[in-house]
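[step 3/7] inverse_fold.run input=structure_tokens len=121
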């Protein structure tokens, strides 16, 4: 079992920055990818960013491409989300996700408990 713990959320002014961290517990299984999702009140959870664990390739949703940066520390089994130029629209609970892939047909997903990010005008 992979356990994820997020940290770094809080309150920021519009135009400010925050850095989120998510640490994965030690596991027998190797991480395939880790990423971030967010969910605002009354809205569905949406994809924010992901990073491949072996190659480091990244992907972002369009609304954060030029403002957020996802990175990883493989040794620490930790993923980061550096958020800059924050907007009130970024306000949400941010969830870390870890993906373990045993085969093309067998994939496991683990979720963190979420960390609140609030951006004021």
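[step 3/7] decode complete -> sequence:
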């Amino acid at each position: 079992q992979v356990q994820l713990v997020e940290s770094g959320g809080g309150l920021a002014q519009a135009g400010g920055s925050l850095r989120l961290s998510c640490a994965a517990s030690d596991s027998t299984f190797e991480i395939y990818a880790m990423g971030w999702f967010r969910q605002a009140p009354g809205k569905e959870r949406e994809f924010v960013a992901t990073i491949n664990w072996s190659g480091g390739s990244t992907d972002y949703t369009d609304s954060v491409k030029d403002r957020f940066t996802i990175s990883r520390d493989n040794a620490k089994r930790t993923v980061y989300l550096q958020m800059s130029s924050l907007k009130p629209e970024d306000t949400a609970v941010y969830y870390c996700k870890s993906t373990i892939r045993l085969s093309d047909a067998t994939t496991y997903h683990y979720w963190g408990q979420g960390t609140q990010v609030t951006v004021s005008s």
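[step 4/7] annotate
DSSP finds no helices and eleven strands in the chain.
The mean pLDDT is 94.
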